[in-house]
Every structure is written in structure tokens, then in C-alpha cells.
Design a protein that fits this description.
This protein is of the alpha+beta class. It folds into three domains: 134 residues, Gyrase A, domain 2, CATH 3.30.1360; 114 residues, Alpha-Beta Plaits; 83 residues, Elongation Factor Tu (Ef-tu), domain 3 (Beta Barrel), CATH 2.40.30. The chain is built from eight helices and 21 strands. The strands form five sheets. A six-stranded mixed β-sheet has the order 12-13-14-11-3-15, with helices on both faces. Strands 16-19-18-17-20-21 form a six-stranded antiparallel β-barrel. It is globular. The two termini are 32 Å apart.
């Protein structure tokens, strides 16, 4: 399936967008009302380059929700079962946001800029109005708004070498999920060691939209000796790295136990949180489904527009949420939401891949082949 995306004022423009087009992006998706490149050369060529070199991504679509004021910590704690009080200023923390039913509203990275100031770096769902509604309804002394913050990302094994060319500090001092505030291209930025790939790198948060192209050009020039390219999050690399995609691998219909996010949470924190009762109930009873890794046979899997049914003994037991062909492992790999009775390592399953009449054989695996 192929179709054009028509850009208009309704799809907001990013501060790096001109360079994305100039570098030949071939496909886009819309994420938080912003364009996100999905392809430059080919899925496999982009994948190998990301694994071997370094890419500069426009990820302005990772919108920030700023929460600040005397009740900022109280509001952020209310939205997640993960403890936030222990997050230090200068630290990032991955924290699923959950509603009163335990459903996952979003799975953002939270940056603590001050004791009473946070950026919620969100996936693709409407978090700001939800948090604003909670703040107003509870009469909290807090501001909740969408600041202008435009992230770009350096991702890949050579990311450190590129960033080191443009900053005065030793970039190895920026530890994983920590950030620093510096100036690049004549404008203040926040630089965190994070990103939506398993190859390592940095997210650089621009705060002045007028300086977006200056920042891009500075980083791109520094990267030329390291074979830098414009890039974007890559489906193959994401699935291989086990990174989940909100809206694909989990939605508001899921709780943290159904997709493995409970490992980031210790229930029962002191602070009040919306999902306490609902998640305590799930923890006591056990989840009915689990998100697992699967390998499956056959030709290269096509793009997944909707879920593919999984069967066992001719009974539906789940569905594929994300899938791709891995050129490194030379097999199809995917993530699947299946009943807990069919989630054990080594479980064999049948997948009805979209458009096909015969099911493919699949197996639940703990890790991808080495």
C-alpha cells in the first residue's frame, strides 16, 4: 500500500522539516499532529546505516507537555504508578501514564528540569488535555501547557564522536537517561543520552524554532567525517531492540502487566496515583495476556496495517502487533499479544498474515537468534 501525505497548515511544521525534505525522505507518518519521516533510502539500507554509522533524526513529533508550579510533582505522580519523587533534577525517567482503570494513556520519558518543573516527552496520544483536566478538576496550583521544544536526535554507534565535535564538555560524562543544559548553534538546548533506538545516542531539545536549521546544519557538518545521514526511527531496528510503540504494541485498552511495563514500576508508592486500585487488582489476579517476541517462517512479511490473528488448535489466542523481516537474523520477527496460556517460551502458534490464506508457523522466543 502506498499513498501520498499532503502537507498543510493542519499538520504542524517542524523546525527541521526543510532539511528532512532536502535529504530525500520518501515516506512520512503523522505523529502528534506533526510529520515524522519513516523512510529515506529503503527500510533495510536505513537499518544497516543506523547500526554502523550515525543518523540525525527530526523527532519534533515527540512533543513536550510542561508541568510546573508548586503542585507539579503531585500531578506527575498522580498520572503514573512509577515513583517520580526520587527522580533527580537532570535525570530522565521512563514512566507509563495510566488512567483510573489502569489503561496506558502514554509511555513518555519524563525529564526533571527543576524541583517543580517537568517535561513529559510523549508518544502519540493527547496527554496535555488529560493532565490539564486533572489539574483543573483537583484545583492544583500548577501550569500544564505545551512549550515550544523541538527535539532532534543523533542515533548510532558514532553519535558520541559527532556530538563531541560541537560541545566543550566530555560527552562521556552524560550518562544514560541523564541530561545537561548547554548552548549549541547560539541557542540554549537540553541534551539527553536517550533515543528511540537500541544503538545509543542523544536527543537534543531545541527551544527556539528560528534556530532549527542552524542546529541541524551544525550537527550535520560535524557528522560528515563519520558518514552521517538524515534518518528516522527504523521498524527493523526497533523490533530487534524490543522497543514498544504506543498505538501499535499497547493502547489505552492495555495495562502495564499486559505488555511488560510492570518491570519499570513498583506498585504501592506513597504518593497518590490514579491507577492504584485497578493495578493492584490486576497484580493480585494476574494478567490474562502477555506481549511476547515471536519468530515466524515464510517470505518477507508485508507491512502491517492492522493486527494479524494468531491461532492455536484453530482457536484465536492473540494477534501480531508489530512485525518485520530481519535481514540480520534472516527471519521474520514480531511482537505479539497472546493469552497467558500461550505465552511460554517455545510455544508454537499459527499466524494468519494479512492477505494470505494459509497460516504461517511461529514460535515464542526469549531472545532473537544470535
Amino acid at each position: 500500500m502506498s499513498a501520498q501525505i499532503f502537507f498543510s497548515r493542519r499538520i504542524r511544521k517542524t523546525p527541521f522539516e526543510d532539511r528532512v525534505h532536502e535529504n530525500g525522505a520518501k515516506g512520512f507518518t503523522v505523529y502528534n499532529q506533526l510529520p515524522l519521516a519513516a523512510l529515506y533510502h529503503s527500510l533495510e539500507e536505513d537499518y544497516w546505516h543506523l547500526r554502523e554509522h550515525v543518523q540525525l533524526w527530526d523527532v519534533h513529533c515527540e512533543q513536550q507537555v510542561e508541568v510546573r508550579g508548586p503542585d507539579a510533582l503531585r500531578l506527575v505522580e498522580l498520572c503514573t504508578p512509577r515513583e517520580i519523587a526520587g527522580c533527580a533534577v537532570g535525570q530522565c525517567i521512563y514512566a507509563p501514564l495510566c488512567d483510573e482503570h489502569g489503561g496506558i494513556v502514554n509511555d513518555p520519558l519524563i525529564l526533571r528540569l527543576a524541583e517543580d518543573r517537568f517535561w513529559i516527552s510523549i508518544a502519540d496520544s493527547g496527554v496535555m488535555l488529560w493532565m490539564k483536566g486533572l489539574a483543573v478538576g483537583l484545583g492544583l496550583d500548577v501550569e500544564v501547557f505545551e512549550p515550544f521544544v523541538g527535539p532532534c536526535a543523533l542515533q548510532g554507534p558514532k553519535a558520541d564522536m559527532v556530538l563531541q565535535q560541537v560541545v566543550d564538555i566530555d560527552v562521556s560524562s552524560i550518562k544514560f537517561f541523564r541530561f545537561v543544559e548547554l548552548e549549541l548553534a547560539g541557542t540554549p538546548v537540553v541534551i539527553g543520552r536517550s533515543g528511540w533506538s537500541g544503538q545509543g545516542g542523544f536527543e537534543i531539545y531545541l527551544q527556539d524554532p528560528a534556530r532549527g536549521l542552524d542546529l541541524w546544519d551544525l550537527l550535520f557538518e560535524a557528522g560528515r567525517p563519520h558518514e552521517i545521514r538524515a534518518g528516522c526511527p527504523n521498524l527493523i531496528e526497533r523490533i530487534e531492540s524490543g522497543l514498544l510503540s504506543y498505538g501499535n504494541d499497547m493502547t489505552l485498552e492495555n495495562n502495564i502487566f499486559e505488555c511488560g511495563l510492570d518491570r519499570f514500576v513498583k506498585l504501592g508508592k506513597r504518593a497518590e496515583y490514579l491507577s492504584r486500585t485497578a493495578l493492584d487488582d490486576v497484580a493480585a489476579k494476574g494478567a490474562d495476556i502477555d506481549l511476547v517476541r515471536v519468530e515466524f517462517d515464510g517470505d518477507k512479511a508485508p507491512g502491517l496495517r492492522s493486527t494479524w490473528t494468531i491461532r492455536s488448535a484453530d482457536q484465536p489466542v492473540g494477534f501480531i502487533t508489530s512485525a518485520t523481516w530481519s535481514p540480520r537474523f534472516e527471519t521474520n520477527i514480531g511482537l505479539a499479544s497472546v493469552s497467558i496460556e500461550h505465552a511460554a517460551i517455545g510455544q508454537t502458534l499459527n499466524i494468519l498474515v494479512g492477505g494470505e490464506t494459509s497460516p504461517r508457523s511461529a514460535i515464542v522466543v526469549e531472545q532473537w537468534p544470535s
